[in-house]
């Protein structure tokens, strides 16, 4: 094999996967058809469980410019309905503010430091697989075709994934052709704002920055992401067919804002060299790959699922796919994985994707115009007074309501869920549990001194630790941060180690 794994696509998910695999000793190569990063403004940050997952690799501090993982944010929204999460004990909705181009630049740096290779200007053109490996056809920057052989191929090549299409994996779901969204980075005059918070008065309602401001004609969102520049987005339903390729002009954006809000907002293009977010998106797609694996070919990120961006779930979903896949794929390539380990990737992550499609469709429905929707929002707003409802929504948005089946893991309440952060006192020093997981290896935490790792020392880190009031005598945490086993039954522990990390070394 020329390399262990070919990853197609140097978006956030391809780059994160390249870093994870390199960290675990593999030689991945990333093929990216663009010669250089475009700097296209997309996400402005990352929310949800993945913020904590990034922290497990020490990436949070790197991406935040040195800020340690802090408290989750207090306010969020569901379908434009305000959620005040301040009253929730253990609010799971962490956030990390970072523009996507910077996220990609830092992930690339991290992956390359760990040995991953990135070939820009190299386009994936096809593949053939057999029992031994995959031959990947590539068009190089000069147009010349060549092939790379690898044990596995992973499509992180975005929503229109060629890997998915050539693997013959269906992409069922829905497309609302009559939904049109227009967005642009603009300069708004100071006179547009009603107060120092930047709110805007519209007929019958006050509009707020960062919020989905719904009217009976659509939804309007605006926020100052750069000094003096607002990103303005306006979403309309039941629209006549629009040309998705014609360039969006300030006049068209302004007219759409006026239609939806009833306010004529003068807007001009900023005088900036930075790439600006000017786009018209025609159609709302909600689709999911019917399978995430076809033999030696896997899908992750937008290649596996597309959905409305309401609630900003894309990176949370895609990057957690990668954290789930990375260690399983590495163990498989290194020949240490239990037989069906790689199949658990789809088993665990397909339901997570389906849930995001469900909640983003629900949010989109709550934003749509119409008297029935207005009534539904009123009812939903009343339900939000219930702390249990608020918690349920916060967990849904964070992807924190997810529990994986852990065969052989026993029935301790921690099993299958996300490992809560602990402050450990080891003989050496006090440290955070997250620090023990920087190497993307499983960790067996032993609080009672009663477990041993015979046969798995090469793959699992044993941490003998003290913690104030530990939640179990011992806990086995997978590299993606989920608890595979907890308790004191060492027979159960052995089963869990075999299930996830293979046969012990001395068993031959
Ligand atoms: C306007 C907008 C706003 C968004 N806002 C948010 C937000 O606030 N929060 C959030 O979490 N998410 C947001 N998202 C979603 C987020 O941007 C995506 O989920 C994320 O980019 C997906 O990453 P990816 O690596 O899977 O795919 P992509 O980022 O799409 O990367 C795929 C890469 O594959 C390359 N590629 C494709 N085909 C080939 C080929 N044949 N050969 C070689 N290379 C190829 C492409 O050039 C590209 O670089 C937003 C998206 C948009 C469009």
Per-chain topology:
Layout: E1 3-8, H1 12-23, E2 28-32, E3 45-47, H2 49-56, H3 59-63, E4 75-78, E5 81-84, E6 95-97, H4 100-113, E7 117-120, E8 123-129, E9 134-139, E10 145-155, H5 162-166, E11 173-186, E12 200-202, E13 205-207, E14 213-215, E15 218-226, E16 229-236, H6 250-261, E17 279-288, E18 293-294, E19 297-299, E20 305-306, H7 314-333, H8 343-367, H9 371-383, H10 387-398, E21 423-425, E22 430-432, E23 443-446, E24 461-464, E25 474-477, E26 483-487, H11 490-501
Parallel strand pairs: 1-2, 1-10, 2-7, 10-19, 23-24
Antiparallel strand pairs: 3-6, 4-5, 8-9, 9-10, 11-16, 11-17, 12-13, 14-15, 15-16, 17-20, 18-19, 21-22, 23-25, 25-26
The protein binds flavin-adenine dinucleotide.
Structure, explained:
GO terms for molecular function: monooxygenase activity. Pfam families: FAD_binding_3 (PF01494), Rng_hyd_C (PF21274). The chain is an alpha+beta fold. The chain folds into 3 domains: 3-171 and 289-398, FAD/NAD(P)-binding domain (3-Layer(bba) Sandwich); 177-285, Alpha-Beta Plaits, CATH 3.30.70; 423-507, Glutaredoxin (3-Layer(aba) Sandwich), CATH 3.40.30.120. It is 27% helix and 26% strand. It has 11 helices and 26 strands. The chain has helices spanning 12-23, 49-56, 59-63, 100-113, 162-166, 250-261, 314-333, 343-367, 371-383, 387-398, 490-501; strands spanning 3-8, 28-32, 45-47, 75-78, 81-84, 95-97, 117-120, 123-129, 134-139, 145-155, 173-186, 200-202, 205-207, 213-215, 218-226, 229-236, 279-288, 293-294, 297-299, 305-306, 423-425, 430-432, 443-446, 461-464, 474-477, 483-487. The strands form 7 sheets. Strands 1, 2, 7, 8, 9, 10, 18 and 19 form an 8-stranded mixed beta sheet that branches. Helix 1 packs parallel to helix 4 (100-113), helix 2 runs parallel beside helix 7 and helix 7 (314-333) runs antiparallel to helix 8. The longest helix is centred in the C-terminal third of the chain and has 25 residues, at 343-367. It is globular, with a radius of gyration of 24 Å. The two termini are 25 Å apart. The mean pLDDT is 94. Flavin-adenine dinucleotide binds at residues 8-14, 31-34, 42-44, 46, 100, 123-124, 156-158, 162, 301-303, 309, 312, 314-316, 318.
């Amino acid at each position: 094999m020329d390399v262990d794994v070919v990853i197609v696509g140097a978006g956030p998910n391809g780059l994160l996967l390249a870093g994870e695999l390199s960290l675990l000793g593999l030689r991945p190569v990333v093929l990216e058809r663009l010669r250089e990063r475009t700097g296209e403004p997309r996400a402005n940050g990352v929310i949800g469980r993945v913020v904590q997952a990034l922290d497990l690799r020490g990436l949070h501090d790197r991406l935040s410019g040195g800020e340690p993982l802090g408290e989750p944010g207090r306010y969020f929204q569901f379908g434009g309905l305000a959620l005040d999460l301040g009253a929730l004990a253990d609010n799971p909705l962490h956030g990390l503010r970072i523009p996507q181009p910077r996220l990609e630049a830092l992930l690339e740096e991290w992956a390359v430091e760990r040995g991953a290779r990135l070939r820009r200007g190299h386009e994936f053109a096809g593949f053939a697989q057999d029992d031994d490996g995959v031959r990947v056809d590539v068009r190089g920057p000069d147009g010349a075709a060549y092939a790379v052989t690898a044990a596995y191929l992973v499509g992180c090549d975005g929503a229109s994934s060629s890997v998915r299409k050539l693997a013959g994996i269906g992409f069922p779901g829905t497309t609302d052709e009559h939904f049109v969204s227009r967005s642009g980075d603009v300069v708004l005059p100071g006179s547009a704002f009603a107060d120092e918070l930047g709110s805007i008065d519209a007929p019958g309602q006050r509009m707020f920055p960062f919020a989905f401001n719904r009217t009976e004609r659509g939804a309007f969102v605006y926020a100052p992401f750069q000094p003096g520049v607002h990103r303005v987005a306006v979403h309309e339903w039941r629209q006549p067919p629009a040309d998705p390729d014609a360039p969006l002009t300030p006049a068209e954006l302004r007219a759409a804002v006026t239609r939806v809000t009833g306010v004529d907002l003068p807007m001009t293009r900023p005088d900036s060299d930075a790439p600006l977010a000017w786009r018209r998106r025609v159609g709302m797609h909600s689709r999911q790959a019917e399978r995430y694996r076809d033999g030696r070919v896997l899908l992750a990120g937008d290649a596996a699922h597309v959905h409305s961006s309401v609630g900003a779930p894309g990176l949370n979903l895609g990057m957690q796919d990668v954290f789930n896949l990375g260690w399983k794929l590495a163990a498989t390539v290194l020949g240490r994985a239990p037989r069906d380990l790689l199949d658990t990737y789809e088993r665990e992550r397909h339901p997570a994707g389906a849930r995001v499609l469900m909640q983003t469709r629900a949010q989109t429905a709550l934003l749509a115009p119409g008297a029935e929707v207005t009534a539904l929002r009123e009812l939903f707003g009343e339900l939000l007074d219930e702390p249990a409802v608020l918690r349920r929504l916060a967990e849904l948005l964070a992807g924190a309501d997810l529990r994986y089946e852990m065969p052989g893991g026993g029935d301790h309440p921690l099993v299958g869920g996300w490992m809560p952060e602990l402050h450990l006192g080891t003989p050496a020093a006090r440290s955070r549990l997250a620090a023990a997981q920087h190497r993307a290896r499983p960790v067996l935490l032993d609080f009672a001194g009663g477990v041993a790792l015979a046969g798995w020392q090469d793959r699992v880190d044993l941490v003998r630790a003290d913690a104030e009031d530990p939640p179990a005598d011992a806990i086995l945490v997978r590299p993606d941060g989920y608890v595979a086993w907890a308790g004191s039954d060492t027979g159960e522990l052995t089963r869990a180690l075999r299930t996830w990390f293979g046969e012990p070394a001395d068993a031959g």
